[in-house]
Specification:
This protein has about 180 residues and is an alpha/beta fold. It contains eight helices and four strands. The protein has helices at about 5-10, 30-40, 70-75, 95, 105-115, 120, 130-135, 150-175, and strands at about 15-25, 50-55, 100, 125. Helix 3 packs across helix 8 (about 150-175). Bound molecules: 4-nitrophenyl phosphate. 4-nitrophenyl phosphate binds near residues 24, 27, 29, 56 and 144.
């Protein structure tokens, strides 16, 4: 069962805290978020109370694995994205997630447009909104590394990992 199927099945049951990372293709930015946050949470007492998945707003790569550069940069830093399978975002997730984290302003705009009410809209934010340093600096977007070099993938990794660490630091409050 995929993480998304587990989330669907958990609706109405003892709810976990559900986090979804969103980007365009689900091959670079959002898989980094999913893999990193899951690994970090698995090292905490909250391991069985947080469910993480990711999706693309586009369908181009559905069924593929993550971009090889994503897999490589994550492996270099000790994370395993080799099992990632691309999926496309489903609008009903807007009501079924506690936090939907968008990579850039285009994703945020599209998710906000799809949200049918204010509570759903309020669960949507930037990935970097959970990194206090990024919020202080006012640099909230994770730029698309797809056309870039490995240095761009390293920058993406650093931004997404810092965000995931920020969220882990908030878990005691979020799950209190
Ligand atoms: P991602 O990067 O959104 O971080 O996965 C991209 C991957 C694929 C495309 C665009 C961005 N694409 O146009 O296929």
């Amino acid at each position: 069962m995929t993480a998304s199927e587990a989330i669907d099945q958990s609706m109405g049951a003892n709810p976990a805290y559900r986090v979804t990372f969103i980007c365009s293709g689900n091959i670079c930015r959002s898989p980094m978020g999913e893999v990193i946050l899951k690994a970090l949470v698995d090292d905490t007492v909250y391991a069985d109370r947080v469910v993480v998945d990711s999706a693309g707003l586009g369908s181009w790569h559905v069924g593929d694995g993550a971009d090889p550069r994503t897999v490589r940069v994550l492996a270099k830093h000790g994370y395993d994205a080799s099992g990632h399978i691309v999926q496309q975002f489903k609008p009903h997730w807007l009501t079924e997630r506690d936090l939907i984290l968008a990579a850039d302003r285009g994703h945020l705009r599209e998710l906000t447009r799809l949200a049918k009410n204010r509570p759903d809209e309020a669960r949507v934010d930037y990935i970097r909104s959970i990194d206090p340093a990024a919020v202080r600096a006012g640099t909230l977007e994770v730029d698309d590394p797809w056309y870039g070099s490995m240095a761009d993938f390293e920058r993406t990794f650093a931004e997404v990992e810092a965000s995931c660490r920020g969220l882990v630091a908030q878990l005691p409050d979020l799950l209190a």
